[in-house]
Amino acid sequence: MKTGFNFAYLDEATKRMIRRKILKAVCIPGYQCPFGGREMPLAYGWGTGGIQVTASIIGKQDILKVIDQGADDTTNAVSIKNFFKRVCNIMTTDRTAEASLIQTRHRIPETTLNKDQIIVYQVPQPEPLRKLEPKEKETRKLHAYKEYALMHVKLYEEISQFGSVIKTWAYPVETNNRYITDPTPIPKFDNPKMNNMEALQLFGAGREKRIYAIPPYTKVKSLDFDDHPFEIQTWDECCSICGSTKSYLDEIIINNEGKKNFICSDTDFCKSNLEKNK
Amino acid sequence: MNIKKIMHVENLTHFYGNQIGCKGINFDLYKGEILGIVGESGSGKSTLLKCLSGEISPSAGKINISLDQGGVKDFLSLPEQEKRQLMRSMWGIVHQNPRDGLNLRISAGGNIAERLLNVSEKNYSFLRNTGKYWMEKTEMDPDRIDEFPLSFSGGMQQRLQISKILSSNPQIVFMDEPTGGLDVSVQAKILDTIKSIVRDINVTMIIVTHDLAVVRFLTDKLLVMKDGIVVETGLTDRVLDDPQHSYTQLLTSSILQV
Ligand SMILES: Nc1ncnc2c1ncn2[C@@H]1O[C@H](COP(=O)(O)OP(=O)(O)OP(=O)(O)O)[C@@H](O)[C@H]1O
Ligand SMILES: [Mg+2]
Ligand SMILES: [Zn+2]
Question: What is the pTM of this model?
Answer without folding.
Answer: 0.90
